[in-house]
Amino acid sequence: MATVDEVRITVSGKNIDVTPALKSYVEKRVTKALKHFDPERQAISVDVVLGVQRGTHTAEVTLHVGKLLVRSEAETHDLYASIDEATDRLARQIRKYKTRLHRRGVQGPKLAEVAPGPAPAEDERDGAVDALPEVVRTKRFAIKPMSVQEAILQMELLGHDFFVFADAETHEVHVLYRRKDGQLGLIEPQVE
Fold first, then answer.
1. Are 66 and 43 in contact (CB under 8 A)?
2. Predicted TM-score (pTM) of this structure
3. Cβ-contact 46, 28 below 8 angstroms
4. Which of helix, strand or coil describes residue 51?
5. Cβ within 8 Å of residue 22, ≥6 positions away
6. Domains of the chain (ranges plus CATH)?
7. CB burial class (10 A; 0-12, 13-18, 19+) of residue 177?
8. Is 39 helix (H, G, I), strand (E, B) or coil?
9. Three-state SS for 25?
10. pLDDT (tens digit, 9 = 90+) per residue, 39-67?
């Protein structure tokens, strides 16, 4: 099981001061969620952003293990409940990931990231782990080079929650999307 000393945990706040007691609580909850990982095999880092806005407390947890990226988010009226819910969701996502790998019999670097142990059982709260979703439709369309501002306007005109376009300057494909908070996000692919 991972310990606080073996995992890099960064806790920051938006419109909230992160006290040592709050940071300690977050570290305890995060290390509990990471029991499936062996920090001696892979570098593990976790970024936690706590926030408060209009009486609603949010907790966003992002886990980086090698090339694996897992993110969970929770929003409640109590900060500690938000932390609990976000770390519980993170743990469930990790269990589902490990179960999928186990069921497929996947061997290789991704399986090495997960600590060895008994085959995971079904999650009582989530029911059986579902198979991966299938692609049921493929859509093809021409990507037009445009600026980010033009893409925002086009997305708004279409009424979509995301928009794929080619950057006018670099000709790289980007994805513009609407976040849960109503703001926009931009995905710029980076080849490693």
1. yes
2. 0.57
3. no
4. strand
5. 11, 50, 79
6. 8-112 (3.30.160.100), 145-187 (3.30.505.50)
7. middle
8. coil
9. helix
10. 666 678 889 999 998 889 999 998 887 76
